[in-house]
Amino acid sequence: MDTLIFEVGLAIALIAVVGVLSTKLRFSVIPFYILVGMVVGPHAPHFGIIDLRFIESSVFIDFMGRLGVLFLLFYLGLEFSVGRLIKSGKSIVIGGSFYVAINFVSGLLLGWMMGFPLKETMVICGIMTSSSTAIVAKVLVDLKRTANPETEIIMGMIMFDDLFIAVHISILSGLVLSGATSWTGVLFTSLTALVFILLFIVVGRRLMPWIDKVLNVRSSELFLLLVIASLFLVSGFSETLHVAEAIGALLIGLVLAESAHAKRIEQLVLPFRDLFGAMFFFSFGLTIDPTSLGGAVGVAVVGVLLTILGNLLSGFFAGHASGVSAKSSVNIGFTLVSRGEFSIIMANIGKEGNLMPVIQSFAVLYVLILAVIGPLLTKESKTIYGLYQKVANRIRVRQ
Amino acid sequence: MNTIRFWYLYLDSHPGTAIQSTEEFSLNIGETDLPGIGRKFEVSARSGDHLVIIIHDDGRRELYRLNPDDPDESISIATFEDDEARHLAGIIGGMTYQPKALETIEVALDDLVIEWFKLERDASCIGNTIGDLKVRQMTGATIIAVIDKGHQNHLIPGPDFPLAAGSTLIVAGEREQLKTLKMYLQKGL
């Protein structure tokens, strides 16, 4: 009996149910998608037609998750604009650099403290330095803070962080996925990736008038086919050059972002990103054995503490560089704490490279904690700053 | 009285007819990108009001004003869906309701023009009487009525009538004289 469609339907239904639940509880949906994937899986029970082990469908769910990564990064590329980054100003660049540097160093620190090898440590740096654009934007909108002066700084820094994500994924794919064992091998594949990326962007810019002309079709069906074809072809072709397919997706997104049809593509791709992105988080959860999480609790807690401290510090630098008040600086730091989709993508690279499984468990716990307390810290940043001020005053008085 | 009220509204919402704006019509608008959210517009009006409009990527519009007690905070005024916002824009822009003043604002008999305008807060004439200012000698135009802030009408105000901020003047004269009058009342000589 073929139950493939039913199983996939079951998976999507589970995702939808926890999605509704987490929205009701006002939490980010991402960790819940992972959790529900983790709860079911090979160890779960099955009753008649309802088979929560997802054995038959696991290959297909995995494939849909793979598409999810492509769409997530394609969308990231579409949203990103080099011109916008250049225009954003010195304070964003300073704040963003501090943000990336501090978080990267805390990743190095954590890897060193736990005695992880280089590859694992680099993946951890990636996990800890990738803010969640989706969560941060949603929290700011929900809290009605979009008009606040620090919001421009926060979203500018996130855009800067996106640039880091792009570069780091290319490096990681050279380091972890190429299978190169020697330093020269790693260097060679990373350089190939870099040359490919630069070449692609330059050629893409040159071909822009032609691309615009080709995409100038009224039929939304043909438009969709053209866009998806280019996404899949470029991503797949990248893989043959040992450049991760995710990077290929990002690149075609970056190129199409400059097109006159960028807005239309964005709207078109959004539902695909939502569906397959959710499948990605679910399938990531499916591969994780819940009993393995226990071993990663210590690392995750240390990681969370490092991230909160590091972000407060980078919020302070960013706020200082752009001349906003101390209270807004605390806002910046706490708002950027949320981690989500891109941390999981980084952990997924580790999984594909057969690195230590503790990395995945760490990523799940780390994202779970920060996706939940990040928005809470953002919401209560005013109260926390008030408490800090009270304590600071008391110390001053005592002195 | 009703029609006067309409003119009043019209003058409020059409800065082009307000006193100093014939020369410098500009609303101070700042634009910023909010990547991942949308676009932010900061509007400073001559009234001193400060408004922030956020256009979300999903089409929603949000209106905020700054909290006067805390410049770091913005207070949400209203949220509109895309279709609501477009409808609203039509209302604010005067597209759905044609102000009565548009039909009558140019009451011109040969060269004689009658016009309405509101005195801005920073006009230099505020506090002086019509006699002090020697309005007719200096500009050639005549102030034929004043509607003060409380919507009280003062017909043919005498030389001892003081000009107050926010009142609407109804003036008569030739086009050039009216232009001089507006400049004179706003900036002095």
Task: Write a compact overview of the structure shown.
The complex is a heterodimer of chains A (399) and B (189). Chain A contains 18 helices and two strands.
Describe the structure.
The complex is a heterodimer of chains A (399) and B (189). With 399 residues, chain A is an all-alpha fold. Chain A has a single domain (65-386), classed as Na+/H+ antiporter like fold (Up-down Bundle). Helices cover 79% and strands 1% of the residues of chain A. A two-stranded antiparallel sheet of chain A has the order 1-2. Chain A is globular and about 75 Å long. The mean pLDDT of chain A is 88. Chain B has six helices and ten strands, in the order H-E-E-E-E-E-H-H-E-E-H-H-E-E-E-H. Chain B has helices spanning 2-13, 82-92, 101-104, 130-133, 135-139, 175-187, and strands at residues 28-34, 38-44, 50-56, 61-67, 70-80, 107-109, 112-118, 142-147, 153-155, 168-174. The relative contact order of chain B is 0.16. Mean pLDDT of chain B is 77; it is low at 1-25. Chains A and B meet through helix 7, helix 8 and helix 15 of A and strand 1, strand 3 and strand 5 of B.
What keyword list fits this structure?
heterodimer; A: 399 residues; mainly alpha; B: 189 residues; alpha+beta; five-stranded antiparallel beta sheet; 6 helices; 34% strand; disordered N terminus; Na+/solute_symporter_sf (chain A); membrane (chain A); transmembrane (chain A); Cation/H_exchanger_TM (chain A)
Number-wise, the strands of chain B total 10
Q: How many angstroms separate the termini of chain A?
A: 78 Å
Structural class of chain A: mainly alpha
How are the strands of the biggest sheet of chain A laid out side by side?
Answer: 1-2
